[in-house]
Structures are given as structure tokens and as C-alpha cells.
Predict the structure.
Amino acid sequence: MAGMALARAWKQMSWFYYQYLLVTALYMLEPWERTVFSILLTGLQASWESPACISCLDGVLAVSPGDMKLELHD
């Protein structure tokens, strides 16, 4: 039972990878070129998203429960 679920998940991930190759036109490249491109793309994405995540965490951690006050104005 678990083997079938794993096989289905593998097939789904293979389909997503194939779509990634088609959309980015990487199917035309050598396997080592695909690997270099994917590593560079992943590094670029990580360098773009990391500061945003850290900035959001800083904002969340800066607010303590005592600072939150609900004020209603007429």
C-alpha cells in the first residue's frame, strides 16, 4: 500500500520535473548544464527570499503581546 503511494508520488514529481524542463527549455541542454542552471536558479531564489523571511520574522518578533492594544475611536 505504501509502495503504491510512493510510486504515485514519484510519478507526479517526475511529471512536475518534466514540465519544469519544458517551460524553461532545459530539455535542450546537457545534464550537467541543467544541473548548473538549476543550482544557480535555486541560489538566486534563496538569496532573494532569505532577506524577506528574516525581515518578516523580525517584524513578528518585535511585537510583543503587551504592545497590542485595541483602540476604538468614535
